Each structure stands twice: as C-alpha cells, then as structure tokens.
# Entry
Amino acid sequence: MEKAFDMNMIGDFVPTLTAYLPVTLYILTLSLLFGFVLGLFLALPRIYNIPIVNQLAKVYISFFRGTPIMVQLFIVFYGIPALTGLIGIDTSKMDPFYAAVATYALSNAAAAAEIIRAGVGSVDKGQTEAAYSIGLSGSQAFRRIVLPQALVQAFPNMGNMVISSLKDTSLAFSIGVMDMSGRGQTLITSSNHSLEVYIALSIVYYAVAVLFEWFFRVAEKRIKKNQTRIVTVFDMNIH
Amino acid sequence: MIEIKNIHKQFGIHHVLKGINLTVRKGEVVTIIGPSGSGKTTFLRCLNLLERPDEGIISIHDKVINCRFPSKKEVHWLRKQTAMVFQQYHLFAHKTVIENVMEGLTIARKMRKQDAYAVAENELRKVGLQDKLNAYPSQLSGGQKQRVGIARALAIHPDVLLFDEPTAALDPELVGEVLEVMLEIVKTGATMIVVTHEMEFARRVSDQVVFMDEGVIVEQGTPEEVFRHTKKDRTRQFLRRVSPEYLFEPKEHIKEPVI
# Structure
C-alpha cells in the first residue's frame, strides 16, 4: 500500500542510499577496467582487418550493442552456472555481484572497441608512416605513436561511455546485486514510499554523473592542451 | 651504393611505375622532378617500402631485397638504413620537438636516453631550433615543423635521406629556411634523394637529375645535361612550363596541334 508523499523522507533516504554508492562504483570501475582491456583486443582485429577474428569481433560487438543490458545480465547470470556445470563446477551459489561485473565488462568492451577503433581511425596515416620511416616496428608504432593519440581523440566518447555505464549499473539489482538501486528496492519494500526512494536515487545518480562530467571536461582540456588541432574561428575568443 | 632495378607499381588498373632503374652513389644528391601524378612520390615511397612495389629489386650495401616478397626483417632493415622527410611533416603530434627527434634513437636503435638527448639536441641546433626543444609541433610554424622533420631524419644517421617534396606545403616565405637547411646537409656529403618542384635547387645542388613522367624515367643526367642540353621534348615542355618566364610568353606560338 503506497503511503502519502512525504518530502522529508527523501532527505532521509539519500544518505541511506549513498552508503551503497561504493558498491555501484566498484561494479563500474571493475567493469570499465576489464571492458577497456577486452575492448582493445576486440578493436585490434577490426583495425587491422584480420580475417575471421574480425568477423567474430564484429558479431560480438553487434550482439552486445543490439540487446538490452537486462537481458544480458540474465543470460550471464544463468549462463555462467550452466557453462561451468558442464565441467562439473557448481557456481549456482555465486554472488550475483560477479555476474553483474562480468556482464557490464562484456558490454563495455563492445562499446570501448568501437570507440577505440574510431579513435585510431582518426589518427592520420602519416603518423604511422613517419614512425616506420625512422625504423619503428609495427607494434612500436602502434603503441607509442598511434594509440596515445587515438586515446586522446577517444577521450570525450570514453567519458560518455562511463556515464552511460554508471546508469546501466542501476539494473544490476534485477539479478539480486545489493548496490544503490538494490538498496532502493529494499527501502521501497520496507517503507512503501516508492516515489521518495526513486527521487532520492535520481538525486544521487545525477550528482555522481555531474561530477563525472565535470571531471572529464577538465581532464579533456588538460590532455588536449598539447595536441595538434586546427584552430578555427570558433576557438578564438572574440570580444 | 644503392641500386634500384625495375620497380613496378600498380594501383588497381593504374600503372604508376613502369620499371624504374636508378643507381645512387655514396654522397650523391639525386633530385627527381616531374609533373604531378608522374609517380615520383610513389617511387620515393617504394624505396623504404612505405609503398610495396609489385616488382623490383633494391640493393643497399650489397644486400639485395626483392621488393615483391620482402620479409618483415628485410623491410625493417631497409627502413633503418633510410629516413624520410615528408611533405606534410608528420611530426608526432603528442611528442615535444626533442622527443620527436629522440624517438628513432631510443626506440628503434635502443640508444640510451642521455645519449639520444645529446644527439637530438645537436641535430636540432644544426637546423636552428635549439630554443624549441620542449615545444609541441602545434606551436611551430610550417618551416619550423619541417626543420624538426629534417632533424628527426638526420638524427638516425641514415645511409640515404629521402625527401618527399619537403617545401611543397610551405608558405612561400618559409621555403627559404628549409632549403637553406637542406643545402647545409648537402655540404656534409650526405646521400640524398629529393623529390622536388624547386627547379633552382635541383639545378644547383644535384649530381643527378631525374625527370619522370607517366611512370617512367624520361630523361636523367647531370643538371647541365637535363636543364641546359635537354634531349627530350617532354622534358623541355615541362621545364618551360615551370619556368617563371612561361606566364609571360606569347602563347600563340606554343599552342599544341589539336588532333
């Protein structure tokens, strides 16, 4: 039974929910870390057009970008025990936290791969040629010359990915993870004040997202300071 | 020292190089001139295998590389003997001037950082940029960028320096400072192959001038032979058109017959 709207409850809920923010951030950090590394390995065959692996990467990316994150969560959550069961390991009692991290990592990898690929594509081919011309090997040219510039190019998109991934983690409660949203669900059950809980949740998520956005904006400015870019009239301060 | 035999290159149906032969002795300056699309840049890029010829042989120091199927090792080896200066500079945008010059030393040649720094600083002094060591490419003028490009190529002490139209992208006012640096390099006795539109430069510093058109070498020889005692009509036509006087010549006389 829903109770009458009570503004004061929001203020009470915010600190209760914020106490679970570390869990949310933990899922986010781990999944971004693993996702980024996996994304790099997915991007490489796409960039270098390596036969077969390229097709597999394409299918992988397309699948994870084309299915809802909640469906992916359940597939991984039920899929891991089913898979490990085949080799006789029982993981059905596994903490759903790990399934959530795995899902978000797999999903972030698909997004990261496309972002990295676009970043590498935006680096002038001449950079690679110049690296070759002074005797760098293919991998040296990629690691030392192309990738650093590609990551700078990709940085704004990475920022967007982090923020959208933060919002995605709010679905982890559906497989029973006790993160901020999970705690929100239990608060609703115990208090019968759904609206207040959701408003409190939105306040915390929004605050974190704004903080991230600010951080990425400042970081981007610092990183781009030394990069070559074409200065247009739009960059000039005309008063 | 360098012998290049029968280089062929095709882009799709477009036959860009139709069997180029060239011998370059140690300390020689070879300039390649010719109209756009004649294949001169492609030929130069074949020499460090940035472009893979369909056929041909490059030998340096008695080491013979079959360009059709070079091994990774051969490609890498060849690139270590050569260095290229690009029309669009291609400085590493995320590295400072000194880091740009050090890169080929510390990474490709495993030189110690302090030693590489000393070499790079010295090369940058030669091109007059000793006070820009810590600047980023985006903070330099075109002429300064190209001088860094030259220092980067010089630093690795290649057997042969390849210049791909090094002044073509520069403001007219900045061409001089780059050519000046190149003249200094000529004086050191470096082996150079230069693709250029700077005819006066070609005329004055070359030991050998090569005129290319439509994928073949039309004419080659000393500057005296090519510029003064031109043998082929196509060369004469090209030289006339690039000469400053061309614009003011009475055009009625040189109209080509319409077939």
